[in-house]
Design brief:
By secondary structure, the protein is of the alpha/beta class. The chain has 4 helices and 4 strands. The chain has a 4-stranded parallel β-sheet with strand order 1-2-3-4, with helices on one face. The N and C termini lie far apart (42 Å).
Length: 97
């Protein structure tokens, strides 16, 4: 019984502290999430976000929250775009190629 309680507690902590996949949320909804301290993973193969939208989300990041951008097969963002995003919030923007 104790092992089960410990496992459930660990699972709850992992789910609550890990980044969430953005899904079908609007940029406005995502901005509200990051303003509240949440971390996000944006999958560019499911939905393309403009650099302006990504910079808006990056500007709203709080504390140690992160914005992870998962690239699709086409590599939607150029190196220059990735550099702009990285410089906007050093250490808080991650890329998944």
């Amino acid at each position: 019984m104790l092992k089960r309680s410990i496992c459930l507690t660990c699972l709850a902590v992992l789910l609550l502290t890990g980044p969430c996949l953005a899904g079908d949320k609007s940029v406005s909804e995502l901005r509200q999430i990051v303003q509240a301290g949440g971390s996000l993973i944006l999958d560019m193969s499911n939905r393309r976000y403009s650099v302006t939208e990504l910079l808006t989300l990056a500007a709203a990041l709080r504390d140690n929250a992160t914005l992870t951008i998962r690239m699709g097969r086409d590599g939607e963002l150029s190196t220059v775009d990735c550099l702009r995003l990285s410089k906007s919030r050093p250490g808080q923007i991650r890329f998944w190629f």
